[in-house]
Amino acid sequence: MDLVLIAQGLLNGLLFGGVYSLMAVGLTLIFGVMRVVNFAHGDMMVWGMYLAFLLATRLGLDPYAGFPLCAAALFALGFVVQRRLVNRIIDAPHEMQILLMLGIALVLENGALVVFGPDPRRVKSFLALSTVWLGPLFVDVARLVTFLLAGALTGLLYLFLFRTDLGRSMRAAADNPYGAAVIGTDVRRVYAVAFGIGAACVGAAGALVAPFYPFQPSVGLGASVTSFNIVIIGGMGSLPGAFLGGLLVAVAESLGAVFLSPSLKELVSFSLLILILLFRPAGLFGGKVA
Questions:
Q1: Cα dihedral sign for 43, 154, 236, 194?
Q2: Secondary structure of residue 133 in the 3-state scheme
Q3: What percent of the chain has pLDDT over 70?
Q4: No. of H helices and E strands in the chain?
Q5: 41-58 and 3-34 helices cross at what angle (nearest 10)?
Q6: Nearest-5° angle of CA 227, CA 47, CA 213?
Q7: Confidence band (pLDDT; 50, 70, 90) for 287?
Q8: Do the beta carbons of residue 60 and residue 125 sit within 8 Å?
Q9: How many CB atoms lie under 10 A from the CB of residue 79?
């Protein structure tokens, strides 16, 4: 096996892992604060991709400049979904929550299908064809920028949770909703903001990955499955676990494509999931809740 090819696969996986990490951070935040599993997570990411596509085609805005707008739009969507729908079943049995989130996922997927059609899309970016050579290895500039932005956003979210009053309120509501309400925290508002931030994270991830990942409405399911895989490996509710789990899964898939074939790359990541469930069921960072 060519060592250069292996090193290139490792580098590509690490850079793409930033997107995976940002996806998983949004999902684990929602679960960590509300204990609600967002099955519509991947479809929200797809809408982030399509919003980046609209900004690029209608306004000429590069996705690496327009991703904050996509994140803001998905924050608003997540906030409304939580306030108007999820709030109604927040204390209901888990099967009712699952059915609601699956219904939202179907609405988002079919809405994208009606508006944009089934054909694959890709967003043009001035960084898409830029590369930097490091000896025998090349660095895709678009992936590098995506990795750096994803890492920065995850770091800002961590600071928000641990250095702001609203972030502390989220952590309090996650730990003890009744106790948080007793000391004056508007728990329902905190839940809505947490859901909105989780949706914003995946919306930003969708916009950032759109230039080098062809997308269509049906890719939302795969994105959700990948996010769940990462969150379980990292530990449900753990932000560091979600970030490192995203890097680990991306590297595993990239090396799987090198050693096996591109069509079998997910075999490696799900094999890793099985091993984690066998030997550390709580995940690598299980027990640390946002």
A1: negative
A2: strand
A3: 98
A4: 11, 2
A5: 110
A6: 65
A7: low
A8: no
A9: 20
